[in-house]
From TrEMBL:
It is found in: Membrane. The chain crosses the membrane at residues 86-111, 123-143, 164-190, 210-229, 241-261, 281-301, 322-344, 371-393, 428-448, 454-473, 494-517, 523-545. GO terms for cellular component: membrane. It is a multi-pass membrane protein. This is BA75_01974T0. Its main location: membrane. GO terms for molecular function: transmembrane transporter activity. InterPro entries: AA/rel_permease1. Residues 620-634 have a biased composition (Acidic residues). PANTHER family: AMINO-ACID PERMEASE BAT1 (PTHR45649), POLYAMINE TRANSPORTER TPO5 (PTHR45649:SF3).
Length: 662
């Protein structure tokens, strides 16, 4: 075995290497890197360092070897108050519950039936699933680079130009928060309507009672809050159970419908039947309007980053969970839709009888010809509603907690309080605020069902635009600030980002269009009007509150200039010349010499030029019997500096000594 392979760490004794201070003067080594080097090479750590490879020691100095999950939160200078218990499987379950495929498609089925039928429902779903996956991939890359519970509103600030950082973060944050609150309200209120429509299975003359729906809505809000509060330590289990329940629900419904239905449509009907005569729109426009059910359903993945504080290794698990949730939801939707279309009855039986009975209830009743079986199938969907409500409130409360932590909400000290319940930390007050806002929005349904429906449509618009702001900022910045992320899109990044932005714009247009024409005051889609009111509110609140109080994401400025941002005055130079440090006493100066490349290997030596710090001083003489290589017994291969760093590339060394990270 060669001397180099036996021990790549050589010449680390204090007297073995001459000082060459000028080698580092042009390296622009940051103060943070020097502090880390001083800490890592402290004499008290020598025995631990002795058994590490040179590359690993570099990682220790640059912070790349940190296994502590709180490291990512520390980069944002936030105190870690919530416990990291959730895994990637749990994040998939959470995303799956937010999208709630069988429930989402069941409650909006009538839109697809009116605007095209089979082609719109099936192929429209496939198109939206692919486009949503592109958006999820784009956000996943950004979240992997900047994992934060502030999620996309933090990332919008970081990726935007210096001039617009704070205001981009403010508007993105409000769109995200309003979208979260409205989405939770929409899911639970729609669930209440769906549950009560069960009575229509028995009584074809059933009429919806607004007060009864509102009462059930309040009960479901309270139950969702109770689960989030009292069973916070079981969220991982609840999210995993959601996946099992949802997939099981889809399979059970499909199998029973195919077995019990007396008549079936042929494959040509399922794959190619298109009838938009009921919509009044031209066929092409009708198809796009018919994408609303899929657009409503495949939303919510942008809410997932709010869970960053509670996820193990969020820089990896949040992106994976987000993308896999959309992928699984897309596949589940296809599996759910095809059997429904296979046994689909005549449209006049579903759309012309009773508007207060949801078409999916009638599909179950007509296909099974059994009230009991239909009732049990509906109960399976009710379970999916409950999971969706719990998950939506979870993300809403975490987004509220993060937004208040940045002083974006009045009385922020109230909403950031965390309580310990059954040894689990919960942002209880943020949870109560989310529930309170949902109840307030629910009351609006008593005054105008059209206005309430517009609030729900604007929820998806708000979330879509919030998702688009950081993606657009990244593209305008030529994607420079997402380089080095753990979740890499590489060369297809630009393409996916552009597709995502196209889909977000198209989503906003689609969700603002009425389902049918001609348009009346009642049938008019007021979603965009409500969204504009949200935007106006955010603008006014920025003028009178936000610009004076909102702090934006609190990043750790010791990191590289690419990741560092001061929200009020960005620093253009995040490094200092090493001469600044040499003028101070009580500091250890490290130097690099002999940086070259020879047959793929790199030679690198580090020594100390002056040691005057009483707390971190090196001994004048090192006990070579202790520090020598245990394999060859050669004192020359001792460990107080670096040489022959075989596992470290010249590129890595170059990047490290420019104040960045490899």
């Amino acid at each position: 075995m060669s001397e180099q392979s036996r021990n790549p760490l050589r010449f680390l004794t204090t007297g073995g290497v001459q000082t060459q201070f000028h080698r580092l003067q042009d390296a622009a080594v940051s103060s943070h890197l020097l502090e880390r080097a001083q800490e890592t090479l402290n004499p008290t750590n020598l025995m631990d360092v002795a058994h590490q490879t040179p590359g690993h020691i570099l990682d220790m100095i640059t912070g790349e070897d940190q296994e502590d999950d709180t490291e990512d939160i520390e980069r944002f200078n936030y105190k870690q108050e919530l416990q990291r218990k959730l895994t990637v499987t749990s994040i998939i379950g959470l995303g799956f519950s937010l999208m709630g495929v069988p429930f989402g498609m069941s409650t909006t089925l009538y839109i697809g039936l009116i605007d095209g039928g089979s082609v719109t429902l099936l192929w429209g779903w496939v198109v939206v699933a692919i486009l949503s996956l592109c958006t999820a991939l784009s956000l996943a890359e950004i979240c992997s680079k900047y994992p934060s519970s502030g999620g996309i509103y933090h990332q919008a600030a970081i990726l935007a130009s210096e001039k617009y950082s704070l205001i981009c973060s403010w508007f993105t944050g409000w769109f995200l928060i309003i979208g979260n609150w409205s989405m939770f309200t929409s899911i639970v209120y729609g669930g209440a309507q769906f549950i009560l429509s069960i009575f229509g299975l028995k009584d074809s003359g059933y009429r919806q009672d607004s007060f009864l729906v509102l009462l059930l809505f309040f009960i479901m809000v309270l139950l969702s809050g109770l689960v989030n509060l009292k069973f916070a330590n079981r969220l991982d289990t609840i999210n995993n159970l959601c996946v099992i329940w949802t997939i099981g629900t889809v399979l059970i419904i499909d199998i029973i419908l195919l077995i019990k239905a007396r008549s079936r449509n042929d494959i040509n009907f399922v794959l190619s039947n298109f009838d938009a005569s009921r919509s009044g729109w031209p066929p092409v426009i009708a198809f796009f309007v018919g994408l609303q059910p899929a657009a409503f359903t495949l939303q919510g993945f942008g809410m997932i980053p709010a869970m960053t504080d509670e996820v193990k290794k969020p820089e990896k698990n949040i992106p994976k969970g987000m993308v896999l949730a959309v992928l699984v939801a897309g596949i589940t939707g296809v599996i759910f839709i095809i059997p429904i279309l296979t046994i689909l009855p005549e449209l006049n039986l579903l759309l012309d009888k009773n508007p207060d009975i949801m078409p999916i209830d009638l599909v179950f009743k007509l296909a099974t010809e059994s009230y009991l079986i239909s009732f049990l199938l509906v109960l399976l969907l009710v379970g999916a509603v409950c999971f969706a409500g719990i998950g939506s409130l979870t993300t809403s409360s975490r987004s509220t907690y993060a937004f208040a932590r940045d002083n974006a909400l009045p009385c922020n000290w109230i909403w950031v309080q965390v309580k310990i319940i059954d040894e689990t930390t919960v942002p209880a007050n943020a949870l109560f605020l989310s529930m309170g806002v949902a109840c307030f929005l629910g009351v609006l349904s008593l005054f105008s069902t059209s206005a309430f429906s517009a609030f729900m449509g604007s929820a998806v618009i708000s979330l879509s635009i919030a998702n688009g702001i950081p993606i657009l900022s990244s593209v305008l910045g030529k994607r420079k600030k997402v380089k080095g992320t753990a979740f890499k899109l590489k060369r297809i990044g630009y393409v996916l980002n552009i597709i995502s932005l196209f889909w977000i714009v198209l989503t906003v247009v689609i969700l603002c269009m009425p389902i049918q024409i001609p348009i009346t005051i009642i049938s008019m889609n007021y979603a965009f009007v409500v969204f504009l009111s949200f935007t106006l509110f955010a603008a006014v609140s920025w003028i009178f509150y936000g610009k004076d109080h909102f702090q934006g994401p609190q990043l750790d400025h010791h990191h590289s200039a690419e990741q560092s941002i001061q929200m009020h005055s960005l620093s253009n130079d995040n490094t200092k010349d090493l001469d600044d440090f040499s003028e101070h006493k009580d500091e250890t100066i490290y130097e690099a010499s002999n940086i070259d490349s020879n047959e793929g290997s790199t030679s690198f030596a580090m020594s100390t030029s002056k040691i005057s710090s009483p707390s971190t001083s090196f001994p004048d003489e090192v006990d070579l019997d202790v520090l020598q290589d245990e394999d060859d017994g050669n004192p020359e291969n001792s460990i107080l500096g670096w040489d022959l760093l075989d596992d470290v590339s010249p590129t890595k060394l170059n990047r490290v000594f420019k104040g960045g990270s490899a």
